[in-house]
Amino acid sequence: MPTPTKTRPPAETGSSRRTWVLYGLLGVFAVLYFARPTTAAATIPYSELKQKLEAGQVGEVELSKEHIRALPSDEPARKRGEKWLVNRVEDPELVKLLDAKHVKYRGMQEGDWFGSLFMVWLLPMLLLGGFWMLVLRRMKPGPGMMAIGRSKAKLVAEEGTGVTFKDVAGVDEAVDELREIVDFLSNPAKFHALGARIPKGVILVGPPGTGKTLLARAVAGEAKVPFFSLTGSDFVEMFVGVGAARVRDLFMQAQAKAPCIVFIDELDAVGKARGSGNMAGHDEREQTLNQLLAEMDGFDAKKGLMIMAATNRPEILDSALMRPGRFDRQVLVDRPDVKGRQAILQVHAHGVKFGADVSLPRVASLTPGMSGADLANLINEAALLAARRGREEVGQAEINEAIERTLAGLEKKGRCMNLREKEIVAHHESGHALLAEILPTTDRVHKVSMIPRGFGALGYTMQVPLEDRYLMTRPELLDKLTVLMGGRAAEKVIFNEVSTGATDDLQRATDLARRMVTQFGMSAALGPQSVAHLDGSSEGRFLPGISLGGEKGYSERTQQIIDGEVGELLRRSHERAIGLLEHNRTQLLELAARLREKEVLEGSELAAILEGAHLPPELEGGDELQWSIMRH
Predict the structure, then answer these.
(1) DSSP secondary structure string, 172-223?
(2) pLDDT tier at 248 (50, 70, 90 boundaries)?
């Protein structure tokens, strides 16, 4: 994938090569010099040297200010490379002794002059020169003094993305919105002739994994124009001014390649609302954002330069980014419905060998709420599972197992529970399943299992909606709360005590009850109002659980009303679940016994066991708004 870098002039390239050749030769010479064979001299005392002189064992002596190097007179010893090294002692009689014994002697230069020159001068200069050459090689004309100020955008040439709208499925509305962008980039004269102004920027918003980046690449592939791709974090550096320099360089390169598309993924990394940091108006990120705003105002849209961005946190973006003239158009890339999921599955099914029992429409109906990335991972997990089992085709069993693994986690058959724990888990999951089956507005149960999965889940009850739902009424939410309380209620009914197994159920039920009170206006005490946007712990639109911060915009009394209403909803849901389970105690015990025996029950088996389960007479009339509690 080519990158948008400038080509060096030939002269500079040749000079650089000659410099590297010179450094290479010096390095080879240094290695050869220091690796040359040397023979170490044996160090002996001065007195022993004099004894050897007296005995006539010394044939030649080299004298320096600090050392005496002596060679033996014996020829075989000299061939073996024997020599002696002695620290010099001030002895005026030494020269007389050498003359008396007819020993040749001469002075010598202390130390290795070339080695000293290389270590003291040449080597440091080589290292310093190499460092500066590395620095100078990165210095380029244009924005920023060094390459650190260059944009990190990856450039894909025309027709280089390899993605078109045929590769995108499940987001037909978003594709229709973007076809106009493709038309403008392919034939801008048609719009200019009518005086129309194409949007300068298009921002794709939606949950993670829904295909925002894929859509941007598909637009570039359809329009057959260059495509610059980078993320918001590529602008931000620890050095002040680098982010702004990279923004300037990016737009300079893009205008030179126009018509083209600049795609900034995870825009919230650089486009977060100003003033939200600890040093509002002065930090590097805000300088980068200011430069981005200025560049989006400055470029000429008639050249065919299109800015696209993607984020899953649009609520934290700076309002100046979202005004007309910058990111004019917002395109929602939401999770697909059942038809969209089926289309996505068909795209990812290419190249996968499926068995005759596999039904993609059935798989689509079993995967509500999954994004395109989730579905791609589902198909891959099923294929991996089939390969591990030695199958030649991917069957429905592997797909079902992949769905359960995605939703509930990895199966842990090796985890051993004692008999008491098995009893509790069996009745806990039976309580969920029984209530889900008898309450009229809840989703049907697809499978009940007491095999541990994932992080701490000792069992699970999988419910599958019959159709995609976009609205829920108060009776439906109350039934859902009752089902969530079903596990804990079953433990209370059968064992007259509760365990820690309902932790996740209580968290989900509390969250749902709080949303009913603060968001949906379903509290009689609080009235028809929503205070969720005034709550400092409010969540992002597409990232649940991510707090947006801020202070609460309501009084302590309102907070007390909210807490009281949430607690009342949970308490009455728990009592309602207990009453319904006591009314159907026989079916609960039978279901728990069958679950202990088989560990896994499918929906059809569950329906047969619970055939006699029913609501109390006063609830059969359909008035689900009442909180009747039947105890027997």
Answers:
(1) HHHHHHHHHHHHHHH-HHHHHHTT----SEEEEE-STTSSHHHHHHHHHHHH
(2) confident
pLDDT, tens only, 318-355: 888 888 888 888 899 988 988 999 999 999 988 899 99
pLDDT of residue 588: 93
115 residue type, one letter? G
Within the chain, what is the greatest distance between any pair of CA atoms?
135
Q: 437 lies in which domain range?
A: 419-619
Beta carbons of 333 and 327 less than 8 angstroms apart: no
pLDDT band at 543; cut points 50, 70, 90? low
CB 462 within 8 A of CB 387: no
Contacts of 22 (CB under 8 A, 6+ apart): none
Amino acid at 309: A
For 540, the token pair is: 């992002």
The pLDDT, as a whole number, for residue 227 is 84
CA gap 82, 62 in Å, rounded: 14
Count of domains forming the chain: 4
Q: Are residues 368 and 282 in the same domain?
A: no
pLDDT band at 507 (very low <50, low <70, confident <90, very high): very high
The residue among 308, 334, 309 whose CA lies nearest residue 207 is 334
**Residue 374: CATH number of its domain:** 1.10.8.60
CA distances from 213 to 163, 267, 520 (A): 11, 12, 33
Q: Which of 331, 327, 311, 309 is nearest to 319 (CA)?
A: 327
Q: What are phi and psi of 367, to 5 degrees?
A: -125, 50
CATH number of the domain residue 282 falls in: 3.40.50.300
| Helix-, strand-, coil-residue percentages of the chain, each rounded to 5 | 50, 10, 35
Task: Note if 620 is an active site residue.
Answer: no
Pick the catalytic residue: 284, 286, 295, 429? 429
Residues in the chain: 632
Give the model's confidence band at 430: pLDDT under 50 very low, under 70 low, under 90 confident, else very high: very high
Q: Output the pLDDT for position 540.
A: 63
pTM: 0.68
The DSSP letter of residue 411 is B
Burial 399-424 (b: 16+ CB within 10 A, else e): bbbbbbbbbbeeeeeeeeeeeeebbb
Q: Which residues pair with 202 in a beta bridge?
A: 308, 329
Tell me how far apart the alpha carbons of residues 129 and 145 are, in angstroms, rounded to a whole number.
20
| DSSP-derived pairing of the beta strands 227-231 and 260-265 | parallel
Cα 629 to Cα 443: distance, rounded to the nearest angstrom: 22
CATH of the domain at 89: 3.30.720.210
Do both 511 and 560 map to the same domain? yes
569 touches 481 (CB < 8 A):
yes
Q: Is 183 in the same domain as 255?
A: yes
* pLDDT tens for each residue of 188-204: 778 778 877 777 889 99
Owner of token pair 């002739």: 193
